[in-house]
Amino acid sequence: MIEQKDGLVLVDAGGSPGAGRRIVDMVRSLSSKPVKAVIITQWHGDKPQGLSEILKEWPGARTISTVQTQAHLRDPATMNTPASPDAARNAAYQNELQGEIDFMQQGIEQTKSDAGRRGYTLAKQMFQQYKIDMDGALTIPTKEGFTDSLTIDDPRVPVKAMFLGRANTDGDAVVWLPKQKILIAGEIVILPFPYGYESYPTDWIATLERLRGFDFKVLVLGHGMPQTDRTQIDKIEAALKDVRAQVTALVAQGLALEQIQGKVNLDTAATSFGGEDRWLRGWFKAYFVEPIVTSAYKEAKGEPIVQNLKG
Q1: Across the strands, what pairs with 37?
Q2: Which among 227, 198, 203, 202 has a CA at the least distance from the CA of 214?
Q3: Which of 4, 172, 226, 238 could form a cystine bridge with 154, CB 3.0-4.6 A?
Q4: Nearest 5 degrees, angle CA 112-CA 115-CA 118?
Q5: d(Cα 254, Cα 257) in Å, to the nearest integer?
Q6: Spelled out in words, what is the top-level CATH class assigned to the domain 2-79+138-220?
Q7: Whole-model pTM above 0.85?
Q8: Average pLDDT value over all residues in the chain
Q9: What CA–CA distance (Å, rounded) separates 240 from 244?
Q10: Is residue 135 classed exposed, middle or buried when 0-12, 13-18 and 19+ CB atoms within 10 A define those classes?
Q11: Domain residue limits, the chain
Q12: For 2-39, how does the pLDDT look when each residue is reduced to its tens digit (9 = 90+)?
């Protein structure tokens, strides 16, 4: 939440109607000013799906994203929730979330390690809350799309939204507060490790280099606590370079994707992001290694990377 003279600017809207309602309560507890704008940093569901509840409270608020993100939010084939109330789709999505809850319960019952059971227990609790929060979820497209940058001016706290290049998605936005030297990175930089689904390894590296060039005092991450240095930028960039180098060499040997998946070794990156935590290392493999190897393979083969992740 960014306070300007005549209102508030929000960056992202929460990942569910329930989250959106909690954001409204938080805003009301801190300021009597209206929300004048909401900037959505990418189309993945954890960023825009609280927007419907925020707009109930402040229907005149501007909603802003890159044009690429705006296109995804308009596309029912991409998004996992409808743009208008749909009882059948809502019920189907509730069933999907119940399946996640059941999967986590199986993990609790079958995992022998204390750390594993603790991880599955926390994940189950998260999905239980998410099932409540996502009831009746809608996807609201942004009203405004920009290609390079868009400024919401203010004498004390100007806000500049920018597209620096493809990274985690094809339309990641960052938000820069030049007077306060605060850089909001969205999903380009997160903790504990990045997600790699349908991402763009080469462009992501270049975008991180552009982020590195900002003279920020605080780096606000898409997940995780704010940072004051470039450590996480360095870790993500190193992992992406490692993936790209290994996959390019293996493609040159004529190996298929399935063979390459079994040969790429990102143990150095796994240790960098999660130490020896087996729970984190398992999710690192599933959420970053396997999907980013697929993207690097497509880049090396000259194949398009298509954004089609559900939700």
Answers
A1: 9, 62
A2: 227
A3: 4
A4: 95
A5: 10
A6: alpha beta
A7: yes
A8: 94
A9: 6
A10: middle
A11: 2-79+138-220, 87-133, 231-301
A12: 999 999 999 999 999 999 999 999 999 999 999 999 99
